[in-house]
Amino acid sequence: AERYNPHAIEQKWQDVWAEDGLYTFDENAAGEKFYALTMFPYPSGNLHIGHWYANVAPDARARWMRMRGYNVLFPMGFDAFGLPAENAAIKNKADPAVWTYKNIEHMTGQFRRMGTMIDWSRQFATSDPEYYRWNQWFFIEFYKRGLAYKKGGLVNWCPKDQTVLANEQVVNGACERCGTPVERRNLNQWYLRITDYADELLDFTHTDMPDKVRLMQTNWIGKSVGAEVTFDTPAGPETVFTTRPDTLMGATFMVLAPEHAKVKALTTPEQREAVEAYVTAAGRKTDVERQQEGEKTGVWTGSYATHPITGDQLPIWIADYVLVTYGTGSIMAVPAHDDRDFAFAKAFGLPIKEVIRAEGAAAMPADPEEPYNGEGLIVNSGEFDGMAGGKASIAQIIAKLEEKGIAKPKTTYRLRDWLFARQRYWGTPVPFVHCEKCGMQPVPYDQLPVKLPENVEFTPTGQSPLKLDKEWMATTCPNCGGPAERDTDTMDTFVDSSWYMYRYLSPDYHEGPFDPSKAALLPVDLYTGGIEHAILHLLYSRFWTKVMRDMGLTTQNEPFAKLRNQGMILGEDNEKMSKSRGNVVDPDDLVREYGADTVRAFLMFIAPWELGGPWDSQGINGPSKWLGRVWNLFFDEKATGPEEKLTEADVRYAVHSTLKKVGDDFERMSFNTIISSLMELTNTLVKARRSPVYGTPTWEESLNIFNLMLAPVVPHIAEEIWNQRGKEGSVHTASWPQVDAAAAVRDTVTIGVQVNGKVRGEVNISKTAPQAEALSAARAVPDVARFIEGKEVVKEIYVAGRIINIVVKG
Ligand code: ANZ
Ligand code: ZN
């Protein structure tokens, strides 16, 4: 028989599957729908090993669901707008569209060679005008609902990419794409009102997401419950946000962010120079630098605020540890009970006043070593004395302060509205026009899409490149018919991925973003992708679905019923793969050398899928040899080696217990253990071939089940085997086999029998055999009998299912 040669079969089956439309989803087919989706890639030009890792296991699982009778939708597309296309285009003096669509074609071919069950008939790219037309439609709808607005103010600006960024795209003060420290600029920008949904986005009841993702989103939204307290200042009343109104009597100074609007008015002539120098210096620092722990810096403004209860005069300082973007941009400082305020008071010799004391503790010393952040009773606070500090009394204290007109309850969020437009070329044009007479006007629906102009000079200048195309810009006002100019901003590309999962339902639908008659296919039942999207894409798409629901477009609360994240495949050196490190593994090379099935099996085997791990260039030989053995098991006529003593029960146990385990592992997405179970079963079947089981109905059953179990994991070899065994149709439309529960458990176990601690033989007995039965079976083993003959048995130890030990003397 011929040896396993993946190259002789893989391309062949890929062609057959494509010709037969084997993976074309039919919504009317039998079976409960199951919508499985992996995050669509950016068309960078090449599928890297990470793409394979992200797609192979979910593909296997989707195939398994299909074999179990589900009607599985498993589509794929391309997240095609964005800066890399533009940057590549600038470098190569080519059109971003040409670059993008060429890459898409190449990558689609790579996906095909992976042997996935993707339904390519639903593929689209977000840069297709028929797709981004609906981005524009959505935007106008959002605008009409008051969810899109334009506002001036400080925004994040990436000086390298020459565009504004959303807060979500600033990681540790740097651009999440290029790592350049982000600057702040005062600009008039478009926003989406995601904050309207802050509370709802904290509710995860309708979406099963990993704890880590839930936590990251929760922290990002950053809900804080507390109060706003108002102090009088020479520049008028100033309100601070505090989560600890119970410590109000411990406030000994006030701090404003350097950018706070009242800074100028509060600064006295004597302090002007120092304050201005500090404000300028703070403006030069990046947010990372400002948030770093370390020496506290600040300057006194020269003014005082009046404590609303005691009337005490509290000095007003400015310091960069107070952020202008959070709360009201000012705080009441309580150094006795807050770490940062404490460090600041110590640095500048400001008073520290204790107002919370642990029960039974001594008073805080005049010059304490550290603040007290624990629980306790309120002290030194007049009428509040003796109340419990912290959570227990906050509502009560707020109520009292509210009566006095000093405070009111306030909940703040860290979440900010989504800064939505970009000053770059390769994105969806914002569908608005500016008319001198009528102001900003949305483009009428029947004029959508507003297509991106071609042949634009798009070298980044900080201005939108669309501004350079005067012909494109010139249009007429939909309201008065007079001359008007198009908006030249483009949308954040995270818009594209916020609703793409809906487009797959009806990619050719022209009446709306998706055909409402296909709504029964929602939600996505299983969504898979990288954890790096925990906040950006996943938060935005949850927001988008909630707006769609409120628009009456869907009844879903969440886009994804369940989300699971894969880990990352690192270089063999345990570092992230990158061209500069020279540790990149090219899946195309691997496919050429080993075939797609081997690469698939190895990527499932290499690590627990959710963890990932380093590449192992030797390790791939394991799966490669395994598939060779699988091949020989079916096709090699001569079985060599000693005769094996397996029974039909042994073989059926091996097959059905593996079948049960593989099913359970698919369910819980433990893919590496699926491969190891199948490898183990291969060994058993190789032995069974040389046993009396060979040729029996059990043998046939075993091969059949094994063939079916291989199908989701290594689809090409499984199909070839199926075909050569003369089976009907495709193995991929066959049913997943049923576990014979009785065969899958084995009551009997083989346990060792020791004499004086040395193993002398073994017995095959029931796991629950009583002691007397086990011992008599043990004594009957010839090798054991030999060692106890004529000796005195002093002790017999039996641990059911584990071990028998007979201790003898003489
Ligand atoms: C007095 C106080 C006493 C505070 C105390 C804390 C502890 P979270 O939980 O993050 O919402 N704060 C308010 N606005 C701020 C800003 N713009 N920049 C920096 N800090 C700000 O934190 C809320 C607390 O952070 C507020 O409660 C305030 O300090 C500070 F023992 O007020 B607290
Ligand atoms: Zn007009």
From TrEMBL:
Gene Ontology terms for molecular function: ligase activity
Segments carrying motif 'KMSKS' region: 576-580
Domain Methionyl/Valyl/Leucyl/Isoleucyl-tRNA synthetase anticodon-binding intervals: 654-771
Occurrences of domain Leucyl-tRNA synthetase editing (ranges): 219-401
Catalytic activity: tRNA(Leu) + L-leucine + ATP = L-leucyl-tRNA(Leu) + AMP + diphosphate
Localization terms from the record: Cytoplasm
Positions of the Aminoacyl-tRNA synthetase class Ia domain: 12-206, 415-604
EC id: 6.1.1.4
Pfam families, per the entry: Anticodon_1 (PF08264), tRNA-synt_1 (PF00133), tRNA-synt_1_2 (PF13603)
Main location: cytoplasm
Binding site for ATP: K579
Family per record: Belongs to the class-I aminoacyl-tRNA synthetase family.
PANTHER family assigned: LEUCINE--TRNA LIGASE, MITOCHONDRIAL, LEUCYL-TRNA SYNTHETASE
Name recorded for this polypeptide: Leucine--tRNA ligase
Classification of source organism: Bacteria, Thermotogati, Deinococcota, Deinococci, Deinococcales
